[in-house]
Specification:
- It is a single chain.
- This protein is α/β, with parallel strands linked by helices and 303 residues long.
- The chain has a domain of 118 residues: ATPase, nucleotide binding domain (Nucleotidyltransferase, domain 5), CATH 3.30.420.
- The chain contains 11 helices and 10 strands.
- The protein has a 5-stranded mixed β-sheet. A 5-stranded mixed β-sheet has the order 8-7-6-9-10, with helices on both faces.
- The chain starts with a strand and ends with a helix.
Length: 303
């Protein structure tokens, strides 16, 4: 019996699903495997941890895996494709090159949601972007141009927006409770230290603050609630841009989501679903995230 691996490589976590020809047998997680954000050593450690945990859960050895599909940000570029392929060859020696497929995280998410059919996938994890495909196979995208200038509605965007909003309240002389939570989370003593932390190079990991903003919103903090609603609105704008490239406003279009922001924030999900239906009344929206690792496992079986 053959064994297969499907891997969803994200900016915050890496998830690996191991299965045979019919069933999923085990799951494992590691840290970031986004080469645009972390170095090669970190990516390898994350992949190794996810694969090892999934194989242990499945009761097999990594060398028994015969085919693997990995989706990761930037995997279509040679600078990302080559080192990640080398890592997979070392970690899964049973997968010959022809049975190791690498693709962009947006391509994987689109397949996980709709197979080869039409639809729109909205990604909101550490970063964000939208990918759409119509009935003729034409594709369109929006967003996803990187943390410095884009990634609207993502975990990074939410964290950075929270810091900006908290400092604006400092300017007004009315510090919000969110400021204290940020200082505590980052083990920072005062505002001056926060300013230094958020402006140095390499940049601070703003995505780490997303769970904190979500926690504050659930406790009723109005600033946190407004930030999450803005995130949902930003994601709607990206989705609408991609949809209008392929369909008229009255078209019936399936829309799915993926990523930790959708998975963990009801405020974002509800804002996204409601606002998108205002712009596209016939859109069929599923704001509960699809399982990208499971989609990668399906593709690995095809190899």
């Amino acid at each position: 019996m053959g064994y297969f691996a499907g891997i969803d490589g994200g900016g915050t976590k890496t998830e690996c699903a191991i299965g045979d020809g019919e069933r999923e047998l085990g799951r494992g997680r590691g840290g970031s495997s986004n080469l645009n954000r972390v170095d090669e050593a970190t990516v390898r450690t994350s992949l190794e941890a996810a694969i090892a945990a999934a194989c242990q859960h499945a009761g097999i050895m990594p060398a028994q895996v015969e085919a693997v599909c990995l989706g990761a940000a930037g995997a279509a570029r040679e600078s990302v494709l080559v080192p990640m392929r080398q890592m997979l060859e070392g970690l899964l020696p049973g997968c010959v090159p022809a049975r190791a497929q690498l693709m962009g995280d947006h391509e994987l998410a689109l397949f996980a949601a709709f197979g080869d059919g039409p639809g729109v996938i909205v990604i909101a994890g550490t970063g964000s972007m939208v990918m759409a495909r119509d009935e003729q196979g034409r594709t369109a995208r929006a967003g996803g141009w990187g943390w410095a200038i884009s990634d609207e509605g993502s975990g990074h965007w939410i964290g950075r927006t929270a810091v900006r909003a908290a400092l604006r309240d400092v300017d007004r002389g009315k510090p919000d409770t969110l400021l204290g939570m940020i200082l505590k989370a980052w083990h920072i003593a005062d505002v001056d230290s926060l300013v230094r932390e958020t402006n140095h190079i390499p940049p601070a990991n703003f995505a780490q603050l997303f769970p904190l903003v979500e926690e504050a919103a659930q406790a009723g903090d109005p600033l946190a609630v407004s930030i999450l609603r803005r995130a949902g609105g930003e994601l709607v704008q990206l989705a609408n841009i991609a949809m209008r490239k392929l369909w008229p406003p009255e078209a019936l279009v399936r829309v799915a989501t993926v990523g930790g922001v959708f998975a963990h924030s009801q405020e974002v999900r509800e804002t996204f679903e409601h606002s998108l239906r205002v712009l596209s009344p016939n859109a069929v929206v599923d704001a509960m995230p699809v399982d990208a690792a499971r989609g990668a496992l399906v593709l690995a079986r095809k190899l």
